[in-house]
Design brief:
The complex is a heterodimer of chains A (170) and B (102).
Chain A (H helix, E strand, L loop, with lengths): L10 H20 L3 H21 L3 H26 L9 H24 L16 H10 L2 H22 L4
Chain B lengths: L5 H21 L3 H26 L3 H31 L13
Helix pairs in contact in B: 1-2, 2-3
Chain lengths: 170, 102
């Protein structure tokens, strides 16, 4: 069974990445300064990209860094600077309690569900060429051509919609 | 330490998703809410990639590609709406946007 474990990732590195990712996610939510939240989100997206690389998905990892951590976060930071929301929000303990309890329940349920099945014992069966840009492009332009074109139309609609929405009236 | 399995990735993803839910529920700043939604989408992407690797199928990676495209569109439209709302109300507090509340 040892040849099924092609995973080159050592547990230590995974736990380090996971701890950093959870820490960055917590900082996104609990930082009171919006710019600090955005910076923590950049860190979280980078760490997720590294996790994608550990799962033999280099193309998606590169796209994650370019599109998410690059383009989308620049947009977020631009809007934060543009609006300059200086006032810090005051805390409401009722909401914090309710939100924390709800999220704990959700996390417990998700972890219970994902740990329930035992049909996925043979993990990491993927070979070396799996996840290469060629394979991604192959399935993108054969099995998923129509969704691909629809996604491009969606992006066009988003561009036009953003210009219309953010345009100054009058 | 045991070898890393699919469960590790799924549990990590569940934790990050729940943190995103906390952000949407308790923060009262529209930009932070939007960033928490991005965090949740990211956790789901991690699940897709982990399953794609386990099941040796490229469909998961293609789906992550589409999720990224939709997330980009969502962020653009969301931020445009935030700018439009801020012009009218001079505030980013979602609690103040209750014009339709009965």
């Amino acid at each position: 069974m040892s040849n099924l474990q092609i995973m080159s990732l050592s547990p230590l590195i995974f736990y380090l990445l996971a701890a950093l990712l959870v820490l960055a996610a917590l900082m996104v939510v609990f930082q009171r300064n919006v710019v600090h939240s955005a910076m923590a989100l950049v860190a979280a997206l980078f760490l997720t990209a590294i996790l994608f690389f550990t799962l033999h998905a280099p193309m998606v990892g590169v796209l994650q860094v370019l599109v998410y951590a690059g383009a989308i976060m620049v947009l977020f930071l631009f809007v934060i600077m543009f609006l300059n929301p200086s006032a810090l929000e005051e805390r409401r303990t009722v909401w914090w309690g309710c939100g924390a309890v709800a999220a704990m329940l959700l996390a417990a349920a998700l972890i219970a569900v994902t740990s329930a099945g035992n049909a996925l014992e043979n993990f990491m069966i993927a070979g070396e060429p799996f996840g290469s840009p060629e394979m991604l492009a192959q399935s993108l332009f054969t099995d998923f051509v129509l969704p691909f074109e629809i996604a491009s139309v969606l992006l066009l609609v988003a561009i036009v919609g953003a210009v219309v929405l953010a345009k100054r009236e009058g | 330490m045991a070898a890393i399995s699919l469960h590790h990735y799924l549990v990590l993803s569940a934790i990050v998703f729940s943190i995103g839910v906390i952000g949407v529920l308790i923060r009262r700043n529209l930009i932070v809410n939007l960033m928490s939604i991005e965090l949740m989408l990211n956790a789901v992407n991690l699940t897709f990639i982990a399953f794609s690797h386990t099941l040796d199928s490229m469909a998961g990676q293609v789906m992550v590609f589409f999720v990224m495209a939709v997330a980009a569109a969502e962020a653009v439209i969301g931020l445009a709406i935030i700018i439009a709302v801020f012009r009218h109300r001079q505030s980013l507090d979602p609690q103040e946007m209750q014009l339709l509340k009965w």
